[in-house]
Amino acid sequence: MNETLRGKVALVAGATRGAGRGIAVALGEAGATVYCTGRSTQAGRSEMDRPETLEETAALVDAAGGKGIAVRVDHLVRDEVRELVARIEREQGALHLLVNDIFGATKIEWNKTVWESDLDFGLRSLRLAIDTHAITSHFAIPLLLKAPGGLVIEINDGTEAYNGTRYRNSFFYDLAKAAVLRMGFALGHELKSHGATGLSLSPGWMRSEAMLEAFDVREDNWRDAIAHVPGFAIAESPTFVGRAVVALAADPDVARWNGQSLSSGQLARVYGFTDVDGSQPDAWRYMLDAEAGDVDANAYR
């Protein structure tokens, strides 16, 4: 995939860690210029209070072969997003790819009803998951439309096939992820007549920094966790969804996916890319099949 996106400009909103970092680095590997935004920098952490920084992500983009530009932006603050887009236009003259990967919730109260949940945390999570995406799209898409063939990708947790009929174990989380799915559909509708494409994309069970910590493993020994949770065998690295984004951005016929809900495992079978271990994990197909009976997660890699 090297050099396939040389000359292209991408904005990865929410690039500090997890899927956002994996996407930014994969875009760098393909030669793109990547604006990496979020709230955690060397100068201070966001409310998530995690150690990863935007500067680290930008440096990884550079090391991969692209150009990484770290910009601290609170995507709930309209003036900051407006200035970010103005800066991209001043410095690059165009924007070809917008990836909305913003969330940043510090607390999800699993298996609690809406009346049992902490209302302040719940409403804050909705603002972080929904308002940030709407604000960013509002200001960034006009610049994106100045160049033909623009692409907007809404990063989500779960596909329409899965989320559409299943409760995600939290009123607020369920609502947030349903909204992002609908954003991909709505943007596809609005962008189509302008020669651009909008869609939603979900990684599977992703080995983010926080997930590895939760299982007390590292990326180099993550399989040790399978002994305790067999389903973790389907886990994928953040690089996998990054390669899915690169495949979409480099596809001259990307409009065929307009308005659709996609997954990294699904796209790997179409475009032929693999995860870092050479496999093609299809987590959402596994999870759907696992509901019908006992299946081996390793068979879905």
List keywords for this structure.
about 300 residues, alpha/beta, Rossmann fold, 7-stranded parallel beta sheet, about 40% helix, globular
Walk me through what this model shows.
- The chain has a seven-stranded parallel β-sheet, sandwiched between helices.
- The mean pLDDT is 96.
- 42% of the residues lie in helices and 12% in strands.
- It has a single domain, classed as Rossmann fold (3-Layer(aba) Sandwich).
- The protein is of the alpha/beta class and 301 residues long.
- It has helices spanning 18-29, 54-64, 78-92, 119-144, 160-163, 171-192, 209-214, 238-250, 264-271, 283-290; strands spanning 9-13, 33-38, 67-72, 97-100, 151-155, 197-202, 261-263.
- It contains ten helices and seven strands.
- It is globular.
- InterPro entries: NAD(P)-bd_dom_sf, SDR_fam.
- This is NAD(P)-dependent dehydrogenase (Short-subunit alcohol dehydrogenase family).
- It comes from Pelomonas aquatica.
- It holds the Pfam family adh_short.
What characteristic shape results from the CA principal axes? globular
CATH topology: Rossmann fold
Q: What fraction strand?
A: 5-15%
CATH architecture: 3-Layer(aba) Sandwich
The end-to-end span amounts to: 21 Å
What summary fits the major beta sheet? 7 strands, parallel
Tell me the count of domains. Answer: 1
CATH class label: Alpha Beta
Low-confidence stretches: none
Rg over CA atoms: 18 Å
